[in-house]
Amino acid sequence: MTQLQTFALLTYHLLEVRGERGTIVRSSNTTRMVDRLGEIYDCPVIETPVGFKHLSAKMTENDALIAGEESSGFGFRGHVPERDGVLSGLYMLDCLTQTKQSPSELIAAVQELVGTHEYARVDITLRHEERDEVRQRVADADPSEIAGLKVLSRDEFDGFRFNLEDGWWLLLRFSGTEPLLRIYAEMPSVEQVREAMEAGQTLAGVSL
User: Cα–Cα distance between 1 and 125 in angstroms, integer?
Assistant: First the structure.
């Protein structure tokens, strides 16, 4: 299970198994599976920049049901508005106990609802002297398609994100604390994720 699948499964557990409702908060670099769950269960979804301090603020403002970020941090209503791995584990055990299903069976159930979502991330170390040049190449990039999917728009909400048809996405984000370019993608197939990762490196003019 990836951290994105874990977030989707915890959200599914609160909505479907426990019957709770409320706002879902997610970082810009995590799964759109929770957006689809929000649509299905009529729950609003709020997007924030990367960093749990941003999610925490939105949790408090909206009495959010759950919040999650790509780096495996999850927070829950009725507890402190912060990441809590122990509580996440307890909710996962609660899900397994109540449904009497394995994690793989539960992920299959979630994907039956929202469709198959595949994900990957690569971190590329940059030399200090090349960082500005790489950033400029990414800023100037204007592809018409990525991994066979049409590029509908591009934003700089938190990094450089290419929004593709059917809700898929590729994000190139420069770390604020390390000399890294992080490339993320969520696609409908493993093959397209691989293509998107290669496209991201090409746009930036870098390689692993």
Answer: 26
